[in-house]
Each structure stands twice: as structure tokens, then as C-alpha cells.
Design a protein that fits this description.
The complex is a heterodimer of chains A (178) and B (245). By secondary structure, chain A is mainly beta. Chain A contains two helices and ten strands. In chain A, strand 5 and strand 6 form a beta hairpin. The two termini of chain A are 21 Å apart. Classes of the chains: A mainly beta (178), B mainly beta (245).
Amino acid sequence: MPAATASQTIGPYWHLLEDPSWADLTRFGAKGERIALIGTVTDGDGVPVSDACVELWQASPEPSETWDGFGRAATDAEGNFRFITLKPGPVPGAPGANAPQAPHAALTLFARGLLIHLHTRAYFEGERLNDQDPLLASLDPARRATLLARHVGERDGLPAWRFDIRLQGADETVFLEV
Amino acid sequence: MSDAAALPFRPYRPGTQPPSDAPEYGSTARRHPIRPLARLPGGQTATEIRAPRFDPARYPATVDIARNGSHEAMGERIIVEGRVLDEDGRGVPGAMIELWQANAAGRYNHERDQHDAPLDPHFKGIGRLFTDQDGRFRFTSIKPGSYPWRNHHNAWRPNHIHYSVFGAGFAQRLITQMYFPGDPLLALDPIFNAVPDPAARARLVAQFDLSVTEPEWALGYRFDIVLRGRGQTPFEDNDFDGEHA
């Protein structure tokens, strides 16, 4: 039986693939609560990571003709990324689990210096289901806070949520074993 | 749920994936998480088990990277043929593969690549493919050149093509590099050698294949990509689960 192929870094030249329109998940006309999901990626020295590829995937809403649920954004010179997406609803849990998970989006991070991508999740501060979410409940409060996007007013006329990603350090983002 | 498509994916097999922290590859030093990865209580959920499906109508395929309109890129023309499989050997149909690579002189068509080697106006170095019903794919390109990088003194990357693969579940997401057989730089490359298991490293190297090679046209290589399988490994109970044996 073959084992899964080994991961290798995305490297510094992955932008050859980049299509900036992919950062808008609503570009095919999806209807719903449009939001901006923004953030900054920093390394263990607090230095912006300016060559990262951030991918966003949401199992909610369900895929449709106007909605793939997937986007990709490059970080800029200051380490910033920006998606336009639909605010997710509750997400089904593990097979056999009855309770839904709190609304969240999956983020994967690829960059030079990452030999294998990192998985994390952006939850939304203030959501009623957050207290019952199995992953959030399993983390101590300081660690849990790294997974909560904060509402930070408006950006381009849309409600903006900030989700910063710290690769290393005291306030390192929670990354997931998937 | 009995639907096979709703089952979680197996963990990676030990040694088959590179660590986040690889001291020989300098850029990992300040970019790898120090804390252990958090586990999902109860295992993978819809977020990991499902995946975006890409409609080729919206994400058009490019199977001939060696050509830009009517112009041919400079370099040694190659054909790469292979399959995207899961760990049970089943083909993964409809998988989207993205490709990018340096030109024959070892330079990317990228503003941040300042290597003193010529750009080829007829070579963009990007492609997108979808696997067929059996998981097969095939594309034409030119063999990418080696290029220097600043990881250590006199560091050169082996010839490689970058692959980005989307499977049937987001837990199968893979970005990797395909190398070429007989490359003397492989033994010296910290990115390739960061994969601990020699067999897993060897599977990143394409095989020259005369049956893929087309007479008077292009050299052929074979490269299969394996994505994580769903459910339990058939031999898992014997090999790994000693506590319950």
C-alpha cells in the first residue's frame, strides 16, 4: 500500500498561480451575509510574512452553483491578507456526532519555510455556539482566543472580521493536527 | 453514516512527511510553530472531510505548458503522465492539479526571482489540470533548470516542478515538488531531504518512461501522486495498534 505523497514547501514563487479574484469567495454571485475576513501573518520575530499563500475553505454554506466555498489570498508586503466571503453557519461535526460545531472557516497556510502547510480555523467572537464547540472547549482560554476573529468595524462597506496568524511565539496561533 | 465519502482520512504514516522544523532549511527557523498541534476532539469533521469541487468551466485547464499561443518555449520538451491515487490505490477522479516551474535556464517568470539567467518570453511556467475518471493526468512542458538559492553557501535547487493538488476532502490537500531521476543535487537539497523516510523521498522523483516518451518529440516521465486514504488502514490493527492486539 502506498503512503500519501510527501509535502514540500510552496516556496517563494507560488504567485505564478495567483489570481487575486480568488480572494472574493462571492465572485460567482453567492448571496448571504458578506463579510471581509482580514488578518496579518507574522513569524516568530513578529516580522510580517510577505510571501504566504492563505487558503480559506468553508463547509458552510453548502456548495452551490454560485458558491465553491474556497478562496486563496496572498499576503502583501506587510503580511496582510483579505478575503470577502459569506459568514458561515453551524458546521456538521465528526461523523456520528449530533451537535453542530460553531460557525468557522478553515484556513490553511503555505509559505517558504513551511515544508508542510498549517491548518487553523477562524471562529467568530460572540457566536452563541462557541461555548459548546468541541475544539474551542478543548483549549485553555488564552489559546482559544487565537482562534476567534474579532469584529473590527467596516472594510470596503462590509462588516470586517480580523483574524491574525502568528506562526511562532508566546501568542502563537493554535494550529491543528488534521 | 455508511457513505464512504463521509469517512475521515487516516493520519499520515510516520516518517513520510517533513517536519515543520528542519534546521538545514533556514527559513523554517522562525516560521514553524513551537507548540504541539491541537487535536480535533472526536476527529475530523465536515470541514476536513468535505472539499471544494472545482468546475473546469470556471477553472480552465492548460495541458501544454511548453507553448504560449503559437510560440514554443526553449528547452528540453517533456511529457509527464501519472495518476492521482488514494492510499488504497484507487484513482481520484476530478482532482484539480496546479503546476508551476522555472524555465529551462532555471528562472521563474516572477518579479522576485532575480537569478541572473534569461527569461523566456514564450514560457509562463504555469498549468492547471483535472484528473480523468481513473485519476489520470498528462501534460507537456519543458524540463526546468536548476537555480541557486541563499540557504547556504553554493546552494542549488535540484530540477523540480511544483504541484498543488485538491482531492475529495480538504484533509487531502497537498503541495509538493516533483524531481527528476539522476539529479546530483538531490543528495544536497535540504528541502527534499527533510522527508525522513527514504522511500517517501524516492517517490518524489519521477521515473523516466520510454513508453511515455514520444519518438521525435519529447521525453516521457511517470509520476504518481498519493493522497490520504479514508477510513481505517486494513493492516493498521496489526502494525500500529499494539495496545489492542
